[in-house]
Amino acid sequence: MVRVSSAVTSKQRKKKVLKLAKGQFGHRKSRFRQAVKSVHKGLVYQFRDRKVRKRQFRSLWIIRINAACKEEGIGYNRFINGLKKANVEMDRKVLADLAVSQPQAFRKLVELAKAKLAA
Fold it and tell me: Tens of pLDDT along 69-110?
């Protein structure tokens, strides 16, 4: 029976892992065993943090909306409640952008929310 050498496949696999480990510190970038661990951990963080980034942006939008609402004399939760009662379906990303870039339009939304809360 013929002996099969898997040198080509093994070298390709190692090259792929070491390429992903480029930029790591110390032996993590040059030794295969450490590189495998480091790359795996990095991919786990990458997957997790794609979801964390979405949470952080939503939190940032809420903070911006709240700050703009406080200037208009209404709290964030009352503002959102007033918009829901007025059947205004805008997500927080758009509301935060309005609060920063177009304060006049945001002021109109606040007035609408206040009117619906009063009624």
Answer: 999 999 999 999 999 999 989 999 999 999 999 999 999 999
Taking residue 115's Cβ as centre, other Cβ atoms within 10 Å add up to: 12
pTM to 2 decimals? 0.75
Domains and CATH numbers, the chain: 27-118 (1.10.1900.20)
Q: Which amino acid is at 50?
A: R
Instruction: Let me know: does 60 contact 68? Beta carbons within 8 Å.
Output: no
d(CA 107, CA 92): 15
CA distance 29 to 108: 56
Quote the pLDDT of residue 78: 94
